[in-house]
Each structure stands twice: as structure tokens, then as C-alpha cells.
Design brief:
single chain; 149 residues; Four Helix Bundle (Hemerythrin (Met), subunit A); elongated; mainly alpha; 0% strand
């Protein structure tokens, strides 16, 4: 039970840390000028508006299949990230902190984060490539309407 509690606490710390990192990254980008957000579509946006954009059965099946494959990959990558975070946290607790060891472990954490981002972008590219230009235009319109509210 102790291990599960420790893992839960580490996972919570990791999620807080990721939120801070993501928040600082988005703060560096001017609002609504993120080229990734402007040009790609998250799967939840596509599926939430599947009727409005006229998603056909083949497209729905493709998106669902890609989401399922990606979820498996994301789970693996999250485990890798957690495996890299635990030693980092341990190193940061030391007195004094060994900067070289922390930086080496941080590189492992950042590598895992990089792989997660790559998987996310790859998923959105595959989805975009299955959408017709008019569907993409409609999604952009729906996204703009939802953000202007």
C-alpha cells in the first residue's frame, strides 16, 4: 500500500509539474497564434463535432482506431516518464543536490516528454490527413466559435 501511495503522490507531482511546464510554454506563445493549434485538430474536437463536419463511417472508424492505438502508446510513454521522474525527484531531495546528475536525469525526463509530444502531433496529423478540406474549414470555424464565447 505504501508503494501505491508513493506512486500516486509522484504521479500527482508529475501532473502538477507538467501543468506548470505546459502553462509556461503556452504563455510564451501569443494567444491564438499557436501554429500547431491553428493547423491540427485534437481527436476530441473531431469526435465532438463529427455530425457537424459530416464525418463518414470510414473516417469515424479510422479516427477511433487511431485513438485506440495512441492511447496504448501514451500509456507506455507515461510509464516511461514516471520511471524517469522518480529518480529526478530523489536527486532533487538530496543535500547537496548534484547538478550534473540532476541535469542528466532531466534529459531523460525531457526525452520522454518529447516522445509524448511527438505521438500527440503524429496522431493529429493522421487525423487531419483523413479530413476533407471542407471538414477542416468547418472544424476551424467551430473551434473559433467555441473560443470566442
Amino acid at each position: 500500500m505504501k508503494l501505491a501511495t508513493k506512486r500516486g503522490a509522484n504521479l500527482h507531482l508529475l501532473l502538477v509539474w507538467l501543468c506548470l511546464i505546459c502553462g509556461s510554454l503556452s504563455a510564451q506563445q501569443p494567444r491564438n497564434r499557436d501554429p500547431i493549434v491553428e493547423n491540427l485538430f485534437p481527436p476530441d474536437l473531431v469526435m465532438a463535432h463529427q455530425q457537424a463536419i459530416g464525418l463518414d463511417e470510414a473516417q469515424k472508424s479510422f479516427v477511433r482506431s487511431e485513438i485506440l492505438k495512441a492511447q496504448t502508446r501514451f500509456t507506455e510513454l507515461q510509464w516511461q516518464l514516471q520511471d524517469a521522474m522518480e529518480p529526478l525527484i530523489g536527486l532533487l531531495k538530496q543535500q547537496p543536490v548534484d547538478e550534473a546528475q540532476v541535469m542528466a536525469q532531466l534529459d531523460k525526463v525531457l526525452g520522454a516528454e518529447r516522445e509524448i509530444k511527438r505521438a500527440q502531433i503524429a496522431l493529429m496529423i493522421r487525423i487531419k490527413n483523413k479530413l476533407r478540406p471542407e471538414q477542416q474549414a468547418r472544424l476551424r470555424q467551430l473551434r473559433a466559435e467555441s473560443t470566442s464565447r
